[in-house]
Design brief:
This protein is mainly beta. It is built from three helices and 18 strands. The chain has a single domain, classed as Porin. The chain is globular, with a radius of gyration of 21 Å.
């Protein structure tokens, strides 16, 4: 599941001075000598080859933001980072990371009048994976404060394939935030409950639609050691018109059960907002659900299964009015070293898209420069994900 954090409005440039001021203003520093294990350096290399049996001539996977290239060797992610954990002995923490690859391209939103406009320098800023400060305040059970660029608190799947049960991400994950810019606070009430509050610069952290902040909350409940239930909420203005009637409401619900070699999980999202830029200002709606199952068969071998659907009734999020359905199966071999992990994955995936704007690219043109589309596609993906953390 994704991670923590606060934000301060959608300005054209990230206010780095404000992030530093917030981080330094949370509390007085504790000058304890940090443990060597508090510091980590690492990185990830993610390469795949996706064989799409529709053989689209543009090598693109329509309606997909991560793993977007097919029928070619694709360096999807190259990432490196340094991190210091915030602990009771050394309460200040930080993260800084850089990244590249095809998966980072779609982090920059397209320009849509009245809705989306990339922040200045967005094509450069997409290459930062983390840039934040954190502080573990000595309040009750420990209040963690984080400010800057951080991992989104929304969603079950990570932007990085190494953290997920399958190689490809679901449509649910691709259409929710992977990263956020702002600030947040998380507090473990007791062993079973944890709450989080966030102030961020918007649903798409590289979008500059207005100068108002958005808000988020997270409630996490662990009724048993094997079961975790999470509810994430997002509420804020994501259009040039910022009246409350045009604010976006988004809910992300997650349930995960772990026992021995088995992991079962489910996630369900629902979102809505009025389209301020359209003459009739219709109420738009999108929703989706995903089931996850994984079994560690023996030693380094695991198998995973993921059925899913995603309905974008008005084409608000995916760009097309469509109902997407998919089922993904994954075979994994995991090689481990004290500070290295390599994942070799073979994945089969079937996708279907129906509706007015539905379809996937296929070989051939229906008119000059316009590729044909098919309702279905089948993919066979080979991937290698190598990661280091030391």
């Amino acid at each position: 599941m994704r991670q923590i954090r606060f934000g301060f409005g959608r300005t054209g440039h990230f206010p780095i001075w404000l992030v530093l001021a917030c981080g330094l203003g949370f509390a007085a520093p504790v000058f304890a000598e940090p443990s060597a294990s508090d510091w980590h350096v690492g990185g990830t290399l993610d390469v795949s080859y996706g064989l799409n049996f529709n053989f689209p001539e543009n090598h693109q996977w329509r309606s997909k933001s991560t793993t977007p290239r097919v029928n070619e060797l694709a360096p999807n992610v190259v990432m490196g980072y340094v991190r210091k954990d915030a602990t009771e002995l050394s309460r200040w923490g930080m993260e800084f990371g850089v990244q590249g690859g095809y998966d980072t391209d779609a982090l920059v939103p397209p320009t849509i009048p009245g809705r989306d406009k990339p922040v200045d320098g967005a094509d450069t800023l997409r290459h930062f994976s983390r840039a934040n400060l954190s502080y573990l305040a000595p309040v009750g059970n420990g209040l963690t404060l984080t400010a800057g660029l951080f991992n989104s608190f929304i969603g079950y799947q990570s932007f990085y394939a190494k953290n997920n049960l399958n190689y490809t991400r679901s449509y649910l994950a691709d259409n929710a935030p992977y990263f956020m810019f702002g600030a947040g606070a998380t507090y473990p009430v007791n062993e079973s409950w944890q709450v989080g509050l966030y102030v961020i610069n918007g649903y798409s952290y590289l979008s500059h639609t207005n100068d108002q902040p958005s808000y988020g909350t997270q409630v996490q409940w662990k009724p048993t050691s094997q079961l975790t239930i999470i509810e994430n909420l997002y509420y804020g203005p994501d259009q040039s018109r910022t009246a409350i009637e045009f604010w976006r409401f988004f809910s992300d619900s997650i349930v995960e059960w772990n026992r021995g070699p088995f992991t079962l999980a489910a996630s369900y999202d629902i979102g809505t907002e009025k389209a301020a830029e359209q003459a009739t200002q219709p109420r738009t709606f999108w929703t989706g659900g995903t089931l996850y199952g994984r079994w560690n068969v023996s030693g380094p071998w695991s198998v995973a299964l993921r059925p899913e659907f995603y309905w974008d009734r008005n084409g608000r999020i995916s760009g097309s009015e469509q109902l997407l359905k998919a089922i993904t199966t994954t075979l994994e071999y995991k090689w481990t070293h004290p500070w290295q992990v390599a994942l070799l994955r073979l994945e089969y995936r079937y996708d279907e898209s129906s509706g007015v704007g539905g379809g996937f690219f296929k070989r051939g043109e229906i008119s000059p420069g316009v590729l044909g589309q098919a309702k279905e596609q089948q993919l066979l993906l080979f991937s290698v994900v190598w990661s280091v953390d030391k």
